[in-house]
């Protein structure tokens, strides 16, 4: 058995203090016990790093004697609320993604796919994949700006005022080019504003959405990669823009938003330089809304029969609180599930393949399958103000060709550790009876809601467009039945 240096150190300290405490006064023993308690409390401690002050930054958590980052997959305001409250702040002002405060610098992600209710006292009390279980890279650190009473109103006004379209701020032409690539379709993104010199863009928060706009504007079709690195050079160049934010459907980069046009410093380090790789071959996924409408129904099921699904984060946070507290006969408590079929078709010109290489797929013993993507789809129920009141997600444990049309032949099958993916003109179908193909709506009151299904929601896999990756539907929920209708497809 291997013993870590931290464990040895703690044991030595403990032994020394126990010996020292022998024969000491009651007052001294109390001091020693207080120190031991504070030493143990380091496990689960959270801090914010990379920000301009102590109330903002990427979230890091202390576990097993080392600091690690939190991944932004499924990161939301409830998770951020727990962090801010644990740090003693009033609440959350802003949730950040994509390593907004610099690349993750710990070399590890301790937490991924967090599910917090927002009431937990510590982030480690929330449900998540498991310590160190993550598919995230250094550009996916979760962050937060916490609310302080003194600056709350002022900072909110500043955020609103500084977010504008690039073209409206500089009121002059913006030229774009790629430099430093091995081929014309790749390189660092350089921009020229008016008569200024050419310069680079900070790669902080740079994603496939921004890269798509660049490739399209240059007539290079689609973006297959959004680089946040100095691989294509540019370290010595002027940094002209920082905090560029696109939806992905803009025709030009200067139609995108920018959070602070007069800040040209990267929150992380200067080696974060925006780059792209363009291509003319990509998949394109679309949701079958008719299938959503005709397949939806309710099912009430006891937790006893849902324990396998619970291992894969398929229930609401409250279910895990019931399990954790183990009050009474918790196995017999019932959850209400909104079940439906999700049919996803690839209408692109090449196969949709998982983001993670096959040798890194994780086998889940409970369902006897491999996870090739942590999150393939998310399912949300929103109230009439747009606030999410129930959620679900789907790991791509069996991403395969279930149905093909237009002369296409199935190429992907999950059986026997087979390759996973969706071929052109083929569909992957998660039918309503499959485990985890639901939203846990146990705490939902009857009424009218919005039902939202998002595929490839983290944009981990490049597509021709993300404009057809979200289905929005009206949801009528009565005490005994549910109806999904008026569905349409839109941009995330």
Beta fraction = 25-35%
Query: Average pLDDT, to the nearest integer?
Result: 84
**What separation lies between the terminal Cα atoms?**
49 Å
Residue stretches low in confidence (pLDDT < 50, at least 5 long) are: 1-25, 31-40, 151-162
Using the CA coordinates, give the radius of gyration: 25 Å
Main sheet summary: 6 strands, mixed
Note down, in words, how this protein is organized.
This protein is α+β, with helices and mostly antiparallel strands and 492 residues long. The chain is built from nine helices and 29 strands. The chain has helices at residues 5-21, 26-40, 77-86, 152-162, 166-170, 208-217, 289-295, 307-310, 317-325; strands at 46-50, 56-63, 66-70, 91-96, 109-111, 143-147, 164-165, 174-180, 186-193, 199-201, 222-228, 239-241, 244-245, 257-258, 274-279, 285-287, 297-302, 334-339, 342-346, 362-364, 369-371, 377-382, 388-394, 403-404, 426-430, 438-440, 447-455, 470-477, 482-490. The strands form seven sheets. Strands 1, 2, 3, 4, 5 and 6 form a six-stranded mixed sheet that branches. Strands 8, 9, 10, 11, 12 and 15 form a six-stranded mixed sheet that branches. Strands 23-22-27-28-29 form a five-stranded antiparallel sheet. A hairpin with a 4-residue loop joins strand 20 (362-364) and strand 21 (369-371).
